[in-house]
## 1
Amino acid sequence: MYTYIVLGAGKQGLAIAYDLGKFCDAKKITVADYDAKLAKAGAQRVNKLLRKKLCVPVKADAGKESDLKRLFKGADCVVSAVPYHFNYGVARAAVAAGANLCDLGGNTDVVKQELSLDKAAKKAGVTLVPDTGLMPGMGNTLAVHAMNVMDRVDELHLRCGGLPQKPKGPLGYKLVFSVEGLINEYFGTAYIIRNGKTAAVPTFDGLEELEFPKPVGRCQAFVTSG
């Protein structure tokens, strides 16, 4: 059985803690957040959903690497569900503590910093897997799986959107992660694979309209970073 640490007790952090408890042979799950009350309430909520006491709340500052190093010691895996700008420091702390890490990514420059820790991570015997959120993350994984089960793939187009089953408001959108992380995706340069090569394009490039069955209807899609 495994010991996990989930850094961040927001919506995604608690969903991750629940999945770890239900599907990942967990012995203990530490739910860590700068807001001790939020961490406690989150751990209690997940324990209630799991119908067993696996989650333990801890107060932690994602911006203090020395504190994170002590927290991560002895953990089999750390999952970072804090805003993207903390992730390089979190990754450094994980390597120093000898703990495996994955995070939700969201910013290419930060991910490049994390990838620069490759040699240090290998020397420490740990694995770092950044950018394992929705997109990049789940979408890429599903795309690769689809390619593997097909005889031939000429093109692959990835689309991602926060479209709830019951849309409300003028945008019909549902925010399920930090506003900061969302807005970050609409600025700067995005990196895509085009004709088999990495290409740098501005965000909002490639505007197109897509038609979906009701109640979704017509949507716009464009390139975002992350």
## 2
Amino acid sequence: MLFPEINHYLDSLIPSVEGEERMEKWNALGRSLKKSDMKGAVNFICTHNARRSVLSQSLATAIAYRTGLNELEFWSGGAEATFVHPNSIATLQRIGFRLLSKSQGNNPIYELAYADDAAPLKIFSKTFDDLSSPAPYHAVMVCSKGDAACPFIPGVASRTLIPFEDPGAFDGTPEEEKAYHASAAQIGSEMRYFFEKIIP
């Protein structure tokens, strides 16, 4: 069962996507997934695999679990590997994800639980072609810079650009928590719409 804190958070979001062009991108992803019988993997890709892609992977996993889409896997990657920003993990913890462990090193691996009966997520920064990511997968580019930095991704089933604003622009400022909250809320709202309105 999905943790009640996460369930309550998702219930607080209004499923919505702003703008016809953006809606069509989600529709295109939906068509691609339906062609693969809703099986396989979606890889959310940004420049550093530190913020938006991590939030996208985590929220997509929770929402898909909640809606019963258990045959889909969700991953994240970047044009380069850096480290997952602590603000991303803190945001997920505020939503209700539970931090089980954190490894040592410059690019720690975080284990985050989201449900009692599901394997925890293993979150760390990696390139989009890391061997831990299954192929072929559906690539979702969540930032324009990452899209430009990866002109060719071999072996993908589909590729869709759905960019989100970077909350990292507010790191170290009094607005950082608000910015990360807003980013997670937009990602969660759009993914709720995708999984609840487009996919069925």
## 3
Amino acid sequence: KGKILARFLTLRDEIKAFLKTKDQYVEQLDDRFWLVDLAFLADLMQELNSLNIELHRNDKHLSGMISSVHSFKGKLRLWKSHLQVKSLLPFPSMKQVVGDSDFNNAPFVGYLETLEAQFHARFQQFTSIEPVVSFFENPFSPIDVAETAMAIGELCQALVEEVKMEIVGLQNDIILKSNVSHANFWNLVDAQKFPLLRKTAAKIKSYFGSTYQCESVFSTRRFIKSKNRTRMTDKHLDDCLRVAISSYTPNYNRLADGMQCQASH
């Protein structure tokens, strides 16, 4: 929508000329106040569209979504501060329409305040779950163990004292601490020793901003288990699905180097 509105503003002279050939007149196209409102909406919608695309990326997990929403809320505050002093630096479409003329900034400041309040209300759960997500992204950072354990306990429905013991044990594990930069760190954590933390880590990882992963699994399953392959076992189907939907690319050269050539007899 933002791109369409911005394109409309860019072509408004051509649109007026076209309407004139049809003996039609739209007074809003000559109304400066209406054009300023439209330009503000175009700039804002472009930013909202960018946020929407970012949140629905296939690889976007909960930590990334929280970061994106907090970043956008910070931008809202920054844009509001610009408008309060009538600076249109973050609003190129508005700058194009307003130019060096004066304009009433109060309605736009009020709209951004309302939008910020809406974001706070709609993403309130992000604020409550953020300490948990931060811990699982960086489990060895200094934290309030009691507060973090309480939040994790509520999420995985576990006793807070048991979660505390696992957090303390994990943060003092020298071997795990040396592997904290590993891409799949939580796969290295012993599920027998830290069952609650492993369970919660898997739960956090399963939160996506898009249903694309689920939809792709169902469509792939329908393709793999066709009417001609009805005798396929669940185990075989699970293996086929993992290979089909995974974005992992094996190192074929390394695998080939590790295989023994079959000598002819």
